[in-house]
Amino acid sequence: MKSKLYVPGVGQAGVNQLGGVFVNGRPLPDHVRRQIVELALVGIRPCDISRKLLVSHGCVSKILTRFYETGSIRPGSINGGNGRHSKKTYSTRIEMNKCQNVGVSPPSSSSSNKIVDNEESSSVRNYHSFPTSPDHLPSNSYSTSRYFSFHHHSQFFFQHQPPPNPSSDEIDASDDASDDDEDQDDEDEDNNSIISVDTKPSTSSSSLIKHSIENILSNKVTIKTKRPLSSSSNSSNNEQPNNKRQKSIAC
DNA sequence: GGCGTCACGGTTGAT
DNA sequence: ACATCAACCGTGACG
């Protein structure tokens, strides 16, 4: 059960069981997708992510699965422009991500894809600075497996990265990336705290990432293995329309 | 309880 | 300009 409302210029918007607003048939905003990946990478479980970001579990699972498989947080193609060639786009995205990381221009591609890959490669570079010591590993087993799964796929990209030489190409690339970020729309303003991580030294990146995640979570969500269900959540102004929604939120 | 998967209805862009 | 089709989207339900 979901309420629907018409948003001019957007289409048929709806509210899911978690209370999140979505537009049926349209991909989630990029910053939401990025937050999903960010939260997953720091060990937050998908169920917590779905609750926090008010995105359905299936969507979180789908986005994370795609990210782990392709390294892309972007929706397939609808907004990218080539809706009917998306599968080919996915296969080429991986190649182009690799090319981005070695500083080689991707094979012939549309301008939209270039923009996408600049952002994605930037994201991948960000995640490369994630902590690798066991002290920073996610606590639970599922997150740990996902964590290693990501790093497994990350190495696929990172092994093509040039050695950390901030003198020449890296600086130019970061400058270009920053210029691209400035040219992008307001959506990326929400991601500045995250994107800016890659320009920082790796020693402080973990704290910055943690800080950015805390910002995302607004200091309200803590990684817990057990959720309190009884008092505050039920007594809040969140009305439960039916038992199904109650069950869904409580799970 | 948490997760992966699938059907469904919807949107988008190409033909 | 309009209709049709295929691909993709997120949601919700199921196992």
TrEMBL record:
Main subcellular location: nucleus
SMART domains recorded: PAX
Biased composition (Low complexity): 192-207
PROSITE patterns to which the protein is assigned, alphabetical: PAIRED_1, PAIRED_2
Stretches for region Disordered: 96-139, 157-251
Superkingdom of this protein's organism: Eukaryota
Name recorded for this polypeptide: Paired domain-containing protein
Species of origin: Adineta steineri
